[in-house]
Amino acid sequence: MQYYKEFVEDAIRNYNALDYEHIDLYKKYSVSIPTDINMKHGEALKDAESEINDFVDKVGIKFDAVVSDSLCRSSNDSIRILKTGELDKSILDNKIFKSSEDKLAAFINATAMRFVLIDVKKDEKLSILFYANATMPVQFIVNVAKGAKLSLFEFHASKADRQIVAPTLHEIVLGKNAVAEIDIVHDEDEKTSVISMCKSVAEEHSRLKMNLVYNGSASTKSRCISLADGVNSEIVVNEIAFGNKEQKFDLYNYIANSKPYTTVLLESGAVLNDSAHCMLKGFAKVANGTKAASSRITERGILLSPNAHIDALPDMSIDYSDEVKATHSAATAPIDSEAIFYLTSRGISEESARKLFITAFIAKYLSNMGNGIAKEVAMSLMLHKLENGSFGNAHEISARGVWATSSGRR
Asked: With the C-alpha atoms ordered 117, 65, 195, 332, is the resulting torsion angle positive or negative?
């Protein structure tokens, strides 16, 4: 416990020393979420277990683990949920997201209340519900052993009777020849602000696909670092934000080719209505000596309202240009009026044509999900939002007619 106390004290020192935004270009393009290092964690809502069980029954999904302020349970041996007093020195020594790197990482290192350890040594398909009913920083540490395969689906939801923050920090390490797909879907309510930190390292000949869906919360601040750190490794990050009302999304991705024959791709998309605002900040680093590396950033956005706004900011730093492929691009626009006219001329109503166009754009990102349940959940949430304008409210998950459902539902 003394070692953990020293770890927290170091995190607090770094938190107090670091700037909120460490890249000058992004200081103008930033969403601020208050983080008081001495904050008092709010008390969870009463009868939380009954509330969470009702939520699970409503969405109709069986989760291998549930993590909340007052309820933590796991039915799979590959998922362990620990309190801070149960951490040993090896876990802290092996952390890859250091407090000295980032103010928000230091904040979560200092205040984390739960550590979710996912240790995969064979082929696993896992699902986790993170349900925020109070401010509770949580860390997910995922290790996929040499030659193992993992499919992980995380559903992040919340129900709060006051303003709360839902901070999470992910550390993902893939051993040699490991394969993993991580699907993370956010649908928190309007009283919740989200801080999502993630750092991933892919070792030799490993493959990581990350699908990130942002649909809920009042404000979201995401920082995702993806390092192709082994020869012939590959990381693909695919993210989509769907915002309405006054939602704000600050999505920062740093992708890096550190070794030869590596591939790192970032696909970022946003669909915004009303007065929503999204910042897509992608930065790619191609290190020296990365022969035959491939790096790409693509940012796309659709504006459904004249008051909605997207800042697309792709950038690159290339230290090695011999046989390297590196590109970045960005484009945002309203719905194509000619496409709508074409569809209406075929007898489709204008409202249906708009919905078809928006759904097709979203489906481009969600179709990358190999996990059928995660795909259906994400599309169902976005269709519900498109039709009703609401988010963060549990409803029966159904995307039938868009994709076929998969096994694993009740």
From this structure: positive
Residue 307: CB atoms within 10 Å? 13
Q: Choose among 397, 399, 402, 400: nearest CA to 59.
A: 397
> Does residue 37 have a pLDDT over 70?
no
CA pseudo-torsion sign 7, 165, 250, 266: positive
What is the model's pLDDT at position 27? 84
d(CA 117, CA 94): 12
For residues 260-298, b (16+ Cβ closer than 10 Å) or e, as one string?
A: bbbbbbbbbbbbbbebbbbbbbbbbbbbeebeebbbbbb
- Residue 176 buriedness (CB in 10 A; 0-12 / 13-18 / 19+): middle
pLDDT digits (tens, 9 = 90+) for 262-311: 999 999 999 999 999 999 999 999 999 999 999 999 999 999 999 999 99
DSSP string, 296-314: EEEEEEEESSTT-EEEEEE
Per-residue pLDDT band for 41 (boundaries 50, 70, 90) equals: low
Q: Express each pLDDT in 159-205 by its tens digit.
A: 988 899 999 999 999 999 999 999 999 999 999 999 999 999 999 99
Distances (CA, A) of 333 to 203, 298, 308, 343: 38, 15, 11, 18
pLDDT number for residue 323: 83
pLDDT of residue 94 exceeding 50: yes
Task: Determine the longest span between alpha carbons in the chain, in angstroms.
Answer: 71
Backbone angles phi, psi at 74, to 5 degrees: -140, 135
- Residue 12: how many CB atoms within 10 A of its CB? 18
Quick one: 321 exposed, middle or buried, by C-beta within 10 A (0-12, 13-18, 19+)? exposed
Indicate whether 407 pLDDT > 50: no
pLDDT for 402 = 44
Query: H/E element holding 235?
Result: strand 234-243
DSSP string, 127-149: EEEEEESS---EEEEEEE-TT-E
Residue 50 backbone dihedrals phi, psi, to 5 degrees: -65, -40
Residue 42 in tokens: 């709010």
For the chain, which residues make up each domain, given as ranges? 2-334
128 confidence band (pLDDT: 50, 70, 90) = very high
- Cα 199 from Cα 100, distance rounded (Å): 14
What tokens were used for 315?
Answer: 């950038």
